[in-house]
Design brief:
alpha+beta, three-stranded antiparallel sheet, globular
């Protein structure tokens, strides 16, 4: 007698609602894990910063340079800005020291990074530890059940309960932070920001609105566009009805690949001109500018500079001008474009021309021994354990305190030509570029924090 085991019925496919519920729970769990890891990173960053500061105190060196030295190492390892990393080191040290209960709640995933940012930013004026603790204790229960935006409004009201300094004194201090900044965005546009007293800011906005409303009825611009145009006109020309671009006097630089000289007078001229039309003009720092604006600037430019570039590397190899200038400085400025520390974007116009090998040490004043360094990284080179070499003109090798070497090449200025088959063969036979830095030690001691 034989028996048959009934086959299992096929599983019913999960409903879309069940899949969505599972995905939602997964996202919440991932976000909680990320919050815990971020809090752990903050503790580690604070520990690194504290060790650097303690070492500086023992050796009687500048604490800021000690933080800068560590930040530069982290930044070059991660291909980030060392200014950003230095700010993160200092911020982590302050957050862990000033807001310990909030950081613990962050690590427990009871709150998220935005809540800590609100509490730390709004509570910044509180210098008394007892006042900070009371402020933090009052806000944490609310932070665990509301979004950061709503918490910020509550935090501002709570702050007034713990401040001993009157508003007039705080406003006087706040005025010291006034300034402007420019952030380049896409499509040849930039954002101009001004940090100014509230009364002046609203007064400026009101005047721009009044000017915008005086436009004729057939003006095709929106109110926001008219306000923006009026701002540019007033700042550049002092006349709200003028054209802001008339207030700019440009130094025009034309990028010319060296190989273009070989095609002069040949049938390749037309093809080269057609290709040039597809290359977007740009400022020396790299920000794109539309061709029509460049033509308007060129019409009022007092002079032109021609740049000849290496077709293989895209670097400037020569420059001339119809007006007498400091030729070597001009060539270096066009070659480097920015500070030459890896990741630094400070414009060459605002940096120092540094001797890679110091003049007092026998270094020459030549293109192969000069490079632009902002004051921050000029100081880093001379006052910390970072070392700099320039084995060939324009190629900089930075060696960190831990022995790793980072190479910085000038940003290409003109078109670059490559041999495709050569690079493909190299990729097949050699693989990726080798890492030249030493591997991390296998027997590294445990972290003391």
């Amino acid at each position: 007698m034989s028996t048959q085991t009934p086959s299992a019925a096929p599983a019913e496919p999960a409903s879309p609602h069940a899949v969505a519920a599972h995905a939602l729970e997964a996202v919440v769990g991932i976000d909680e894990a990320i919050a815990s890891l971020q809090a752990m990173r903050a503790h580690l960053m604070a520990g690194l910063a504290r060790m650097a500061v303690d070492d500086a105190l023992e050796t009687r060196t500048d604490q800021r340079l000690a933080l800068r030295e560590v930040a530069a190492e982290l930044a070059t390892r991660q291909r980030r800005s060392d200014r950003t990393l230095e700010a993160e080191l200092g911020g982590a040290m302050v957050d862990v020291a000033h807001w310990p209960a909030t950081v613990r709640a962050w690590g427990d995933a009871r709150i998220h990074r935005g809540h800590l940012h609100v509490i730390a930013e709004v509570g910044l004026p509180l210098q008394d530890p007892a006042a900070r603790a009371a402020f933090e204790a009052a806000l944490l229960p609310h932070a665990e059940r509301m979004a950061p935006g709503r918490l910020r409004r509550l935090a501002r009201r709570e702050l007034e309960q713990h401040l001993a300094e009157p508003l007039v004194e705080r406003h006087r201090t706040g005025r010291e932070q006034r300034g402007i900044s420019v952030t380049d965005i896409d499509d040849g546009m930039s954002v101009l920001r001004a940090t100014i007293p509230t009364l002046l800011a609203h007064g400026i906005a009101d005047r721009l609105t009044r000017i915008a409303r005086t436009a004729p009825a057939d003006d095709p611009r929106t109110v926001d566009q008219r306000r923006a145009d009026a701002l540019c006109d007033l700042l550049l020309t002092g006349d709200a009805t003028g054209s802001g671009i008339e207030g700019i006097r440009a130094e025009v630089s034309v990028v010319i690949p060296a190989t273009a000289l070989l095609a002069a007078g040949s049938s390749a001229d037309a093809e080269a001109a057609s290709h040039a039309d597809t290359i977007a003009p740009r400022l020396l720092g790299g920000s794109l500018v539309d061709a029509a604006t460049v033509r308007d600037l060129a019409a009022t430019s007092p002079g032109w500079s021609r740049l000849f570039t290496d077709p293989l590397r895209g670097h400037v190899i020569a420059t001339d001008s119809y007006q007498p200038t400091a030729g070597m400085r001009r060539l270096l400025r066009h070659r480097d474009q920015t500070c030459r520390f890896p990741g630094c974007g400070a414009s060459a116009h605002r940096t120092d021309v540094d001797h890679t090998i110091g003049w007092a040490e026998g270094g020459s004043t030549s293109l192969g021994n000069l490079a632009h360094l902002c004051r921050r990284h000029h100081t880093l080179k001379g006052a910390t354990r970072w070392r700099l070499e320039q084995p060939e003109p324009g190629t900089l090798h930075w060696t960190s305190p831990t022995g790793r070497t980072y190479t910085d090449e000038p940003t290409p200025t003109g078109p670059r030509f490559t041999e495709r088959e050569h690079h493909r063969a190299r990729a097949r036979t050699r693989g990726p570029e080798p890492w030249h830095g030493p591997p991390p030690p296998a027997d590294a001691p445990p972290l003391p924090f």
